[in-house]
Q: What sequence folds into this?
DNA sequence: CTCCGTGCAAATACTTTGCAAAGCG
DNA sequence: CGCTTTGCAAAGTATTTGCACGGAG
């Protein structure tokens, strides 16, 4: 039983904001970005719409980094890299997981896998540069 | 400049609690488990010690699932499966990432990778059973 | 005696929610 | 009009922190 969804300019703007960047934004980031064009936008609305999008599978969550949930408008499977220094979340080209191996494991263990995600942690190029002291 | 660390029975108990299970506990879980044996244990202490352990690399974090941070006493690289229904975090045998491929990507992109993690999402065997309606 | 570790409670930080008002169809 | 979406502010939840006291060395 799906709920009917009316058109909303703000909702569209929120989705567009997430899709138009590769910075893996947080709710706060989206809010700050849109505040200029939509002065009466409320942070609650951003949160509400982002979770709705996530639930519908329109966008994905990269997970919670530094206490904040980061979203990703790119739903095609790809890899993420998290810098332990600055907390940046970067896209990494390439799929590191063997699909057949996952499927085999799933049937072995008796559960159903709907998605897989690879996360690399380390220090990004930016922070490596600054670190030379 | 490392800080000196005295012996503490409670700290040891907290570490032992995380290591003695494969349920990937949260701070609250550890607290509940130890409360019986250490009636005046405080939740703040559990949080404090868990983050200290994590920082020292003695234990790892599985990430935030359902709003709570889950820890893992097993620091050897392995894979995690998260059930979208019940939120359980399970260990999965097998390493799904190609080390050489990660290393190549790292040098290509100019950052340093210190760890990699694979996360599978789906529905666990338990929940699949219950779902037959 | 001098620090370290802890209990306790207050403070944070992010996210969710209730409700009345405004908007879409 | 009926149902959806929003603003606003209050409530929630997980985690962190300040401080005085008990404990280890």
A:
């Amino acid at each position: 039983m799906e709920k009917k969804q009316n058109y909303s300019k703000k909702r569209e703007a929120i989705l567009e904001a997430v899709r138009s960047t590769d910075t893996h934004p947080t709710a706060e980031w989206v809010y700050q970005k849109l505040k200029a064009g939509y002065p009466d936008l409320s942070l609650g609305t951003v949160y509400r719409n982002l979770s709705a999008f996530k639930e519908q599978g329109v966008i994905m969550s990269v997970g919670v980094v530094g206490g904040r949930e980061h979203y990703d408008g790119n739903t095609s499977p790809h890899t993420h890299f998290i810098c332990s220094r600055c907390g940046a979340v970067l896209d990494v080209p390439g799929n590191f997981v063997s699909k057949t191996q996952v499927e085999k494991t799933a049937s072995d263990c008796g559960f159903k896998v709907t998605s897989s995600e690879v996360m690399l942690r380390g220090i990004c190029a930016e922070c490596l540069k600054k670190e030379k002291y």
Q: What stands out?
A: The interface with chain B takes residues 63-64, 81, 83-84, 90, 92-94, 96-98, 101-102, 105-106, 109-125, 128 of chain A (CB under 8 Å). DSSP finds five helices and five strands in chain A. The helical segments of chain A are 9-19, 27-35, 43-56, 99-109, 125-130.
